[in-house]
Amino acid sequence: MSTSSLSTSSDDELNSNRNPNPNTKPIDDELSLASITLTESNGNGSVNVNDQNACGQVEVDVEGPSSPTSSGYAGERGSSSEGTSNSRIDDDDEIREVINDDGFVDGVRDARAAPWMPGKRHVDEDDASISWRKRKKHFFILSHSGKPIYSRYGDEHKLAGFSATLQAIISFVENGGDRVKLVRAGNHQVVFLVKGPIYLVCISCTEEPYESLRGQLELLYGQMILILTKSVNRCFEKNPKFDMTPLLGGTDVVFSSLVHSFNWNPATFLHAYTCLPLAYATRQAAGAVLQDVADSGVLFALLMCKYKVVSLVGAQKASLHPDDMLLLSNFVMSSESFRTSESFSPICLPRYNPMAFLYAYVHYFDVDTYLMLLTTSSDAFYHLKDCRIRVETVLLKSNVLSEVQRSMLEGGMRVEDLPVDPLPRSYMSHRLSQHRLLTDSPERFRESTVGIGGPAGLWHFIYRSIYLDQYVSSEFSSPISSHQQQKRLYRAYQKLYSSMHDKGIGPHKTQFRRDENYALLCWVTQDFELYATFDPLADKALAIKICNRVCQWVKDVENEIFLQGASPFSW
Amino acid sequence: MGLASASTACEGMQLCIFDLRRGQNEGQELDKILFFFPADLPFSTQLSVIGLSEGLITFTRIFSPEAACEVIEAERHSHVFYEAETDIWMVMVVEKSKESEAIWRIDALRKVLKEVHSLFRMFYGSIRAMLEKDPSGGLSRSHLYPFIMDYLSALQKRSPLDNCCWDLLVGKKLWLPSFRDCLKECGTVQMLTVGREAAIEVQSLVRVLESCAGNTPCHSMILFHDLLVSTTLSPDDTINLFTYAVRRLTPNALSSGVSSWSYLRRGSTSSHFVSGFTLAQSGSVSEQIYHSSDTSPSGDNGNHVTRPLQHGKWSKGKDGFLVTDTWGVDVGGMVCTTPTIWLQQTEEAMYLCPYQYKNLTLILLIPVSSILNREEGVSLVKRQVIENASLKILKVEEKLSKGWGGENAYHVSGYRYLLIDGDRNISRASPPGKVTTLAKESLLALNNLREEVDLEKSRLKYDNTGGEKDLEVCIRAKNNAWAIARLNRGKELYMVLEKASETLLYASDAFEKFSNRYCNGAFTLD
């Protein structure tokens, strides 16, 4: 027995474009209103196409050939009102005066203890509120006619006037034959990005460089494309005053989660992905079964643990851009509905093909680990479900899932573990890493969470492999244990990154930067980029030595921290 | 009026001054405009530039009430803002261009605006005061227009073709500080290093000079070549008068046929230029506009507007004092009116009396209020100077000449550097001729690094944390040159090392050596 819900759109024009027959080719150029979400509750095999926002419940027999059909996006806008009054859990949107440099926000020492809350907050605010004006970082999406589409803070509808102002600025400059990129005023930057009929604006006083903020707007746009495809532009061609907000109904949580990730996920500015550390054989086993599945008509198969990749495989010649992976995993992880049951949802990979929908089969094996199978075929649900069962069986048999769990607990590379003795370096480090990655030792986990920093004042590092499109970031040591400190470090990395990758004359080769917070060292070669953070009082000569050692260490353990041989995935 | 120039004039650079308090009613928007270059742009275009500026000033104040719009970066233009006086804004719009070398540091452009305004204020007082005196705005406009046009024409560079009757064609170019000038700092003073003995001589000369007007409290400034030797003025007044002296009064300024700003003097052949207009042509139209609107000739000078920045107006008199007829000629027809300037801090009017002996330029400033019978009184003081100070002047000149190391005196081999003491507004840099040997990539790397440092400094300014930024950045650029910046206790040192070896340690060592040897270790890490 199966039930399904179909959310009807408020815009008939769009709905009429829908192909009633899901067996035909994927919607290539027609705008699909929102995602199809087909979920199967675990165990009883009944398929429940679930939508909490559904305007009307429609029964659909999914056992027939007409299985998945469209529905509204399954995210819930309902969460948006929650937490409006709770500013304690805010990790990134404090009103300016509240910021405490030491990271002790209202006595919260480690923000990990106070988890970030998804969804939109402060909906009661608008541009007349002082609190709204003082938010450190605003994001807006609006249409070229000035209609608000998304605002990080405040109710979009109440911000119509403000949105019109933004539109006026953009079109005023455009009328002069130019295109506005940035306005600077004191500590504030207003960054503009025009994508056809879609305008994106960020207003920030976070010290992030222009290039980073612009990159964030690009990702925000990408996230929107992932949900709607670029064919949304056609709606604006037909009707410039088209109101897009209903199309994105319930996706606040996806955007807010992406905006949140700008604070903690280096993938957002490195344009690379990261892997969960695993023994080479374990990852091989996962890769083999994914390859098996990919050969049966799956475009991409990804096994991920939170935002880290366990393994991924693509069909011949298909390559997956790290930004697409970021946006896809953000979409899946931020939507509660994917967690509760297996789902089949149309998504678009903006870097792969911004015009076309793919279909993502998503299934969580446990609370963090999930499988994503992407296909071009809208009726592949049952095939992908079979694939998933095959994958799951193999993963269970080869203990991959338990290894993944343990790796999650143990964490990644720790600066404290950096091999100090330079002579037997490779052997030592290898042994250490084997020990860390392969021994089942809960004590080890406990003791290493209180890191004290590495040798010569090394606090943290990020290593990005250029060939692999992957990076590895060390765990945080105690000098940067609070969430505030970590965020500040990421912002320092962002600055360093954009300084090194100066678009006019970059990339530079080396950079050393010392201020009151850190001594940062960056090294860019053809093969890799290293970003290392030291105590601001660290000795320069020693720091350089340590950086060399970090590079050696990464090379020694590269089979465990990187996904090797995924060459088709680099552009 | 060539049509060609009218149509291309807007393509190069635009500079406007407007008052937010004026023209608030519909239909009166033109009243806001106090100055616009090029003046022959249609009013609708002028108003759209000002409209955008005004709109963004208002918009940015929503989020940043303490600091409104500073810059708009668009794909093809940069709009640089400077609030010269409360609600009186200067905006410069420059065109970016990939093929030419139109790469600027925003802060350097803003300093040009600041300089224009500071000089204007030194000669005429504040714009606001002028507007209060003549609410129609005519007085301010009739002063701003020739003044800024004279300033801009000094930024103009004649092309070699100009000599052969290409004058009427678009052949003149406007030079703005570009990335090639990243080892210079506008709005600072360059000092001569003097030995102890010479310093004592100079001090004694200053005492004699300032006592020439009896009990009247005078001020003085002494320059040797284009370098400052001594000043008894406040820091701001020092910068303004120094800037003016180096451009118009020093032997270099007097001898150069076409006066030019100091940062353009050498190595300017490679500086960026904005082409596409002729000042003379755009001038003819706007002079009509501005003069016809000048309905109130009741200002200080009646219809006559002094043009202190006009070229070639200063010359050395027989008595050694420099004279100009810019401020008019006395009714007798023989004696030039003594120029006056306003001190910024005390708002006191002073007679400007420059004296020159060889490469030594002395500027004596006498309070206008203390001299009752104007020219007579001034010439009395001048006579006193010649009588009392001539010997000392001779001696000082001799001493300074002996110790003078020539134009490359401050060159340090292997280094290209700029040292700024922000607290004292002093800078010292590699000679421009040496800076031109650097590769374009190296200069670009330093220019961009300076842009980053400018941002860090401005953040600090608005953070109100009170501290001073201590920062060290060493970048090895793609061409293997090192671009280094170090901020320490209000001092800044920028450096390009092209021949340093590959290692960061080597570059750091070279930097430390320089700091120890030439900056008293100000940038040496503790």
Please supply descriptive tags for the structure shown above.
heterodimer; A: 571 residues; alpha+beta; eight-stranded mixed beta sheet; six-stranded mixed beta sheet; 19 strands; disordered N terminus; disordered C terminus; B: 526 residues; five-stranded antiparallel beta sheet; 13 helices; 20 strands; 37% helix; 21% strand; globular; Vacuolar fusion protein MON1 (chain A); Vacuolar fusion CCZ1-like protein (chain B)
Characterise the protein shown here.
The complex is a heterodimer of chains A (571) and B (526). Chain A is an alpha+beta fold and 571 residues long. In chain A, 33% of the residues lie in helices and 18% in strands. Chain A has helices spanning 12-15, 130-133, 160-175, 210-228, 233-238, 252-264, 267-270, 280-294, 322-334, 336-340, 381-397, 400-410, 425-438, 442-449, 483-500, 540-556, 558-561; strands spanning 3-4, 38-40, 47-49, 137-143, 148-151, 180-185, 188-195, 198-204, 273-274, 300-305, 308-314, 342-347, 358-364, 369-375, 458-465, 470-473, 510-514, 519-524, 528-534. In chain A, the strands form three sheets. Chain A has an eight-stranded mixed β-sheet, with helices on both faces. In chain A, strands 9-16-15-19-18-17 form a six-stranded mixed β-sheet, sandwiched between helices. In chain A, strand 17 and strand 18 (519-524) form a beta hairpin. In chain A, helix 6 (252-264) crosses helix 9 (322-334) and helix 8 packs antiparallel against helix 11 (381-397). The radius of gyration of chain A is 24 Å and the shape is globular. By secondary structure, chain B is α+β, with helices and mostly antiparallel strands. Chain B has 13 helices and 20 strands. Chain B has helices at residues 3-8, 43-63, 106-124, 127-133, 138-154, 196-210, 235-249, 251-255, 279-292, 374-403, 432-435, 440-463, 504-518; strands spanning 13-19, 33-37, 69-74, 77-85, 88-95, 156-157, 173-175, 219-224, 227-231, 273-274, 314-316, 322-324, 340-342, 349-357, 360-367, 416-421, 426-429, 471-476, 482-488, 491-497. In chain B, the strands form five sheets. A five-stranded antiparallel β-sheet of chain B has the order 2-1-5-4-3, with helices on both faces. In chain B, strands 9-8-15-14-13 form a five-stranded antiparallel β-sheet, with helices on both faces. Chain B has a five-stranded antiparallel β-sheet with strand order 17-16-20-19-18, with helices on both faces. In chain B, helix 3 packs across helix 7. The radius of gyration of chain B is 24 Å and the shape is globular. The chains are: A alpha+beta (571), B alpha+beta (526). At the A-B interface, helix 3, strand 6, strand 17 and helix 16 of A face helix 2, strand 3, helix 12, strand 18 and helix 13 of B. Strand 6 (180-185) of chain A pairs antiparallel with strand 3 (69-74) of chain B. Chain A: This is Vacuolar fusion protein MON1. Chain A: It comes from Melia azedarach. Chain B: This is Vacuolar fusion CCZ1-like protein.
